[in-house]
Design brief:
Layout lengths: L2 H41 L7 H4 L1 E6 L2 E6 L5 H7 L16 H20 L2
Antiparallel strand pairs: 1-2
Helix pairs in contact: 1-4
């Protein structure tokens, strides 16, 4: 085997490794996003109709998994941080997104390390 063939083989092996790791990272991201949606559905304020809590969805856009509330997106910030009321008072903040986000980051990091180290 000459040096040119050796370099081509190394490049081929590295490309295969990169593809496998990319697929595993995408799978970890999908799994973490779906688990986060389930946690948000359980921990979100229910309200009168339960529409807000049931509205959490995950979609893939440009290679990224995006978690959003499809039914009441306008309420996410107001419920998470509180807001001013009509009578001049302030509503109580109901942090339900931040804890799930923090756990998702930890889970993704663990999955990412596992995907890279297992190859």
């Amino acid at each position: 085997m000459d040096s040119n063939q050796f370099v081509q083989e190394i490049n081929r092996q590295l490309a295969m490794y990169a593809n496998i790791v990319d697929e595993e990272i995408d799978e970890v991201a999908r799994k973490v996003a779906e688990e986060s949606v389930q946690k948000l559905k359980q921990t979100s304020p229910v309200g009168k109709t339960g529409k807000y809590a049931k509205g959490w969805k995950v979609k893939k856009q440009n290679g990224a998994y995006i978690i959003h509330n499809a039914t009441s997106y306008q309420l996410t910030h107001l419920l998470e941080h509180g807001h001013t009321l009509r009578n001049g008072g302030r509503s109580k903040a109901m942090p339900h997104i931040k804890p799930v986000e923090e756990q998702a980051i930890k889970d993704f990091e663990k999955g990412l390390i596992k995907a890279v180290e297992n190859r």
